[in-house]
Amino acid sequence: VFWGHCINALVHSIILFWLPLKALQQDSVLMNGQAMDYLFLGNIVYTYVVVTVCLKAGFETTAWTKFSHLAVWGSILMWLAFLGVYSTFWPAIPIAPDMLGQAGMMVKCATFWLGLLVVPIACLLKDVVWRAGWHSYRKTLLEEVQELEARSQDPSKAVLRGISTKR
């Protein structure tokens, strides 16, 4: 299980870095005359990482509560707000002058928006397919009971069957 998670993380890392790098490989110049550089790529990759990690956490959540919604969607929104504030107020806060205008450049870049849709989906597609297959063919007792309760059926037969087979 450990090595499976390590390999999955490695695949996610490769997708999260190489897809944006290849998408931005052509030296494009934005309308304001600024070029896409390593800092621009880094901010895009980090944004994709935040979105992917939050969606993965949401995918692994078994019960969606207001707190899990707050954690998943709030984390994404907090990162975007932080990036916007951090890249706007350099003259007032003299830290990282290279970040000046980065959020604006990202928002105006069509490649960023396309990648924001494609990269997390590419990362999580294997997880979704694996989970769907696993839940279709190898349900746990808990999943069987949850499905029966969702259909308003009595789960006692599944529980007794689970006890008798010692699942």
UniProtKB/TrEMBL annotation:
It comes from the Eukaryota. The keyword Metal-binding applies. GO terms for molecular function: ATPase-coupled intramembrane lipid transporter activity; metal ion binding. One of its GO terms (biological process) is neuron development. It is found in: Membrane. The chain crosses the membrane at residues 38-58, 70-90, 110-129. GO terms for cellular component: plasma membrane; trans-Golgi network. It is a multi-pass membrane protein. Keywords: Magnesium, Membrane, Metal-binding, Transmembrane, Transmembrane helix. Residues 1-137 form the P-type ATPase C-terminal domain. This is P-type ATPase C-terminal domain-containing protein.
